[in-house]
Amino acid sequence: MQTLVTPASPEAIRQAGQLLRQGQIAAIPTETVYGIAADAQNGGAVGKIFAAKGRPQDNPLIAHIDSLAMLDGLAAPLPDPLAGQVQALAAAFWPGPLTVILPRGPAVADEVCAGLDTVAVRMPSHPVARAVIAACGRPLAAPSANRSGSPSPTTAADVLADMDGRLPLILDGGACEVGVESTVVTLVGAPTLLRPGFITREQLAAVLKTPVALSPAILEKLREGETARSPGMKYKHYAPRAEVTILQGGLEAFAAYAAAHGRPGDYCLCFAGEQASLPLPCVAYGRAGHPEEQARALFRALRALDEAGAVRAFARCPGQDGVGLAVYNRLLRAAAFRVVKL
Ligand code: TXA
Ligand code: MG
Fold it and tell me: Is the CB of 184 inside a 6 Å radius of any atom of ligand 1?
C-alpha cells in the first residue's frame, strides 16, 4: 500500500472523510498526538487499525466526537449523578485533551470496546480532527498513530516513520501542541484517573467537586496476572530502542553519575539548557520546571535518541505535580520502570 502524506487542506480533509466513510483508515493530527482514525461504528474498519498498529486485540480504543449530540448511542443513557458529572466535565474541558469512560451504548462497534461494557469518549479541540469527524459524520475510533509499543507520534513525519505502507493517508497538521495523550478518567464507579495528561487530577477534582482516585497502574508496574482497569496500562509503552534509566536527583549528581557510568553510545536525556554541564551527548526535552514544555517535547526526544543511535540514555527526572505526572508516567514506561535514586 502507498502512504500519501498531505497538508490538511479542506480538499484533503474532504478526501479523508470519504475514505473513512468507505471503511478505510487515515492518520490525523489532534492537539495531543497523531491518531489513526476509523469509523467507530464499522467493526471491519476498526479491525484495520489493530492490524496497522500491531495492537493487542484486548486493548480498547477511544471514540472521538465533534458534538455532544454524537454521544447519544455511543454511551448508554446516563443516570444521575453521572449525567451531571459528564456535563460538568464537558463544559470545563471539551473540546480538549480529556477522555471519559462511560457505560457503553449500542452505536459503537464491539472492536472499539474490546469486550468491555464501557466506552472511552473524547471531543478533540484540533480543528483538523474536528473537521475530519464532521466530514465523516460518525464518531471516529483513534488510537495514537505509532506501532504498538513505540512512542506516540507528534509530527506527520513520525507517523510516516512507523506507518509507511500500512495506511493510505496521513493528514499533516504540524506538530501537536500538547504532546502527550489525553487524560483518561473513568466515571464508572468512583471517579478514578486511569491515565494522567494535560488536564490534571486536581482540575478534574475541582470540577467534579469530589476527590479523584489515582489508578495504581500510573506509577507502578502491574504484577503478573493483575488486571488493569485501563488495559493499555499493562503493555510495554513509549519505549525507544535505547535503554532508558531515570536518575532521580539534582543536576550535579546527575552529571557525576553520567561521567562515572557513561560508555560510548550513551546519551543524556536532559532538560533544555543543561547540555553544557553534562559529560555525554544530549537530547533535551523542555526546560526544567516547565512540565507543559516537557510534555510537548518528550516523545520527539525519545524518537531523536533512536535516530541518533543511542544505546542507553540517562534521563533527568521530571516533577510529578500537575502536568508533570503525565510526563513522569510516560518516561517511567519508556524506562521500563528503571529508576536510580542519586
Ligand atoms: O490523546 C489521545 O487520547 C490519543 C489521540 C489520538 O486522541 N489517543 C490515544 O489512544 O492515546 P490510545 O488507544 O493510544 O490510548 C487509549 C487508552 C488506552 O490506555 C486504553 O486502554 C484506554 O485508553 N481505554 C480505552 N477504552 C477504555 C475503556 N473502555 N476502559 C478503560 N480504558 C480504556
Ligand atoms: Mg497509544
Answer: yes
Residue 187 beta carbon below 6 angstroms from any ligand 1 atom: no
Phi-psi region at 203: left, alpha or beta (left = phi > 0; alpha = psi -120 to 50): alpha
State whether the beta carbon of 217 lies less than 6 angstroms from ligand 1. no
Q: Does position 308 have pLDDT exceeding 80, yes or no?
A: yes
Question: Would strands 312-316 and 35-39 be described as parallel, antiparallel, or unpaired?
Answer: unpaired
- Cell numbers placing 41: 461504528
pLDDT tens per residue, range 189-211: 999 999 999 999 999 999 999 99
From ligand 2's centre to the CA of 33, what distance in Å? 9
* SS3 (DSSP) at 171: strand
Separation of 237 CA from ligand 2 center, angstroms?
8
Residue 102 Cβ contacting ligand 1 at under 6 Å: no
Provide the whole-model pTM.
0.96
The CA–CA distances, whole Å, from 240 to 270, 298, 337 equal 16, 11, 13
Give pLDDT tens digits for 67-123. Answer: 999 999 999 999 989 999 999 999 999 999 999 999 999 999 999 999 999 999 999
Instruction: Give the number of the atom of ligand 1 that is nearest the alpha carbon of residue 152.
Output: 14
pLDDT of residue 228: 66
State the closest ligand 1 atom to the C-alpha of 231, by its place in the atom list counted from 1.
Answer: 21
Kindly identify the ligand whose nearest atom is closest to the C-alpha of 197. 1
Q: How far is the CA of 190 from the centre of ligand 2 (A)?
A: 24
Q: What is the pLDDT of residues 27-82, one digit of tens each?
A: 999 999 999 999 999 999 999 999 999 998 889 999 999 999 999 999 999 998 99
Q: What mean pLDDT, rounded, does the chain reach?
A: 95
DSSP string, 280-314: S-EEE-S-TT-HHHHHHHHHHHHHHHHHTT-SEEE
Task: Give CA–CA dist 296/286, Å, rounded.
Answer: 8
Instruction: Return d(Cα 128, Cα 31) in angstroms, integer.
Output: 9
CA dihedral sign of residues 268, 306, 171, 61: negative
Cβ contact 325:268 at 8 Å: no
Query: Can you tell me which atom of ligand 1 is nearest the CA of 97?
Result: 1
